[in-house]
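Dear support,

I submitted the protein below through the web form. The confirmation email said the job was done, but the results page showed an empty box. After a refresh the structure appeared. I'm attaching both so you can tell me whether what I see now is the final result or a partial one.
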Amino acid sequence: MKKFWQKIDPRKWMEFSSPVTLSFLALSALALLLHALTGGGSTRALFSVYRSSMMSPLFYLRLFLHVLGHADFTHFANNMAMFLLLSPMVESRYGSGRLALMFLITALISGALNLLLSPGTVSLGASGIVFMLILLSAASTRKSSKIPLTLVLVALIYLGQEVVNMFAKDNISQLAHIIGGLCGVGFGLAFPPKDAKTGA
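What the results page shows now:
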């Protein structure tokens, strides 16, 4: 029996790379499970950001944890599909530690600006992180200190579309998308990929 389990050991045929990507996916899945088990109570308490008392410690946790929360499985699946396409590549180019820092900064900035600019709304989901990854993946192609034309084009297309869609009446947070995208542009310009040259 022991030999049987050794033969099907997934470590023999599956590569467990991208630890930050997989950890984010696992935490998001856990948040979704808690959402289902608590009837949305855990999401309201921890995994969404909205105006509340700054005296509560949960206020500050929500500034970071809101990117893990999702309204339902469809919301989760739509975000994670794009996330899993982009994040492993970005993690390999920039490193796990730096990607984790980018996630934290993007979550904090998007959470704080949502409170300031959309005080009457509740925001949750990884779409801001996904947009950060979209723009950052375009920047990851650069080999020098010059700005890639692809980054400029992707920024114009994706961010331009979100600006137009801000006037649509839907349940999508274009503000989170725009903030995430701008974070991706900023990270792409501030942090060169591992193999990029620092000279002109």
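Response: this is the final, complete result; the empty box was a page-load delay. The mean pLDDT is 84.
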